Amino acid sequence: MRVTSSNMNKIKNLKMQLSIEFDIKDFGPTKKILGMKITRDKQKGILQLSQVEYINRVLHRFNIGNVKAVSTPLARHFHLSKEQSPQTDEEK
Asked: Does the global pTM surpass 0.70?
């Protein structure tokens, strides 16, 4: 089970309550879940998910792991940013 919150005190409190009823182990921050690698930079406020390993497994499964790579058909000057993400409920 993974516990997620922006409030560390709530996480600690929940872990304490769970430990009263159950034998639990704390493995620390999640580094990988559902085949996705999780990278955090708390100082910059960045959370990154990478599916490289999953994609490589799928390519291998369908025997297309050695195909020639091509770039994404997107102009080089075009950059995506979190400011471009939908902000309002209507945009989402």
From this structure: no
Distance CA 81, CA 22 (A): 43
Can you spell out the DSSP letters for 12-70?
HHHHHHHHHHS------S-SEETTEEEEEETTTTEEEEE-HHHHHHHHHHTT-TTSPP-
Strand 36-41 with 46-50, pairing = antiparallel
Average pLDDT for 2-17: 90
Token pair belonging to 26: 């704390």
State whether residue 9 is helix, strand or coil.
Answer: helix
Long-range contacts of 42-51, Cβ-Cβ distance < 8 Å, separation of 24 or more: none
Dihedral sign, Cα of residue 65, residue 58, residue 38, residue 79: positive
Q: Encoding tokens for residue 35?
A: 């085949």
pLDDT in tens, 32-68: 988 889 999 989 988 899 999 888 888 999 998 888 8
